[in-house]
Amino acid sequence: MIDDLDRDILRHLQHDGRMTATALAAKVGLTVAPCHRRLKDLEANAVIRGYLADIDPAAVGLGFEAIVFVTLSRVDQATLEDFEAQVAANVHIVQAQRLFGDPDYLLKVIAADLSAYQRFYDGELSALPGVQKLTSTLVMKNLKPGSGLPL
Fold first, then answer.
1. Which of 3, 13, 55, 133 pairs with 123 at a CA distance of 20 to 30 A?
2. What strand order describes the sheet that includes 93-98?
């Protein structure tokens, strides 16, 4: 279980994952050694799952984004496992959630442009195991990307 001090550490790291242990300790009111120890405990217990760079998709030629709702024709264990494994392995599917109700899944897909997305849709999304129906919604604007958890 994490305490208020751990939450404070996490709050600061969500906004600046590259913050040094010295700067973090100063922000949360600890000396470096106990702050570093808490940080290592949060990492060891997988509260902190990793550190990532926040890359602008458009700056690397991937400025097209679609939300895809997926309904499966079968929901047996083998189909679910195969579908989820292929989704997890696909680099253009950057987020995926299994949902209660209909549809079964929500996928966030990135591509270079509409033509690239159409090729991906026709060649890869429609070929995923058990797919009965795909519904795409094109993203006009990201209002709140990666805002972090409300700690």
1. 55
2. 93-98, 105-111, 64-72, 131-138
Comparison of pLDDT for 11 and 147, the residue scoring more = 11
Tokens in use for 52? Answer: 């990532």
- Residue 13: which H helix or E strand, with range? helix 4-15
Residue 148, pLDDT > 80, answer: no
* Interatomic CA distance for residues 151 and 149, integer angstroms: 6
Peptide bond between residue 150 and the one before it cis (omega within 30 degrees of 0) = no
Which whole-number Å values give the CA distances from 99 to 70, 106, 136, in the listed order?
10, 7, 16
Residue 3 in tokens: 């305490």
Residue 141: band (very low, low, confident or very high) from pLDDT cuts 50, 70, 90: very high
- Please give the radius of gyration of the chain, using alpha carbons only, rounded to the nearest integer: 20
Residue that is written with structure tokens 């997890």 in the block: 88
53 pLDDT band, cuts 50/70/90, is: confident
